[in-house]
Write a structure and sequence with these properties.
Blueprint (H helix, E strand, L loop, with lengths): L1 H26 L4 H21 L2 H10 L5 H21 L3 H20 L9 E5 L2 E4 L5 H16 L6 H21 L1
Antiparallel strand pairs: 1-2
Helix pairs in contact: 2-4, 2-6, 3-4, 4-5, 5-6
């Protein structure tokens, strides 16, 4: 009786492995797409919020925490978040766009969020007005950095400007190689 149970378990395990293999082979190349969409939109939303609430408010915050040249750094941050976020969202020049985006995250993490610890959610109280949260830690910044790293190392995936440009350059590279060899 135990042999049949082991055989049945082995068969079920093999089925699960084959389903997983099919999913990764068919859908794995699309893994970068949700990362690009979420991270790109997230950066753009933060840049847009700084514009909507008045860039001078963000610049004043930078001045208060002692950032040098707060006006220049404030506008640079807004520009990096908007343009860099758009680049990640559409998958254009992701390795290049990731450098200033990572710099913005690291600066925010080290100058603002580090004293508040790791957790991004700090429930302080629940009142009639709803949940009250404390200042966020650096958890979300680390997640954004991990996503950017994954996109840089693993590629932008399908439906990305980088993929379209690579396909367009492929025949030209073949022609150049043939000319150099022949």
């Amino acid at each position: 009786m135990s042999i049949r149970w082991k055989e049945a378990l082995s068969i079920q395990f093999e089925r699960a492995r084959s389903v997983h293999a099919w999913i990764t082979s068919e859908l794995g190349r699309h893994a970068a797409l949700p990362l690009r969409l979420i991270v790109g939109y997230g950066f753009m939303a933060h840049g847009y919020a700084k514009i909507v609430h008045g860039p001078e408010q963000f610049i004043n915050i930078l001045h208060t925490i002692g950032v040098p040249a707060p006006a220049i750094m404030g506008w640079a941050t807004i520009l990096v978040e908007l343009v860099g976020g758009l680049a990640v969202l559409v998958g254009a020049f992701v390795p290049l766009a990731s450098v200033p985006l990572a710099a913005v995250l690291l600066v925010a993490m080290l100058t603002v969020q580090l004293p508040y610890g790791f957790s991004s959610i700090k429930l302080q109280a629940v009142t009639a007005a709803g949940a009250q949260f404390g200042p966020p830690g650096y958890e979300i910044d680390l997640l954004y950095l991990a996503c950017l790293t994954t996109l840089v190392l693993g590629g932008s995936g399908p439906f990305a400007v980088d993929s379209i440009l690579a396909k367009a350059r492929a025949p030209r590279k073949t022609e150049i190689r043939a000319a150099l060899v022949g």
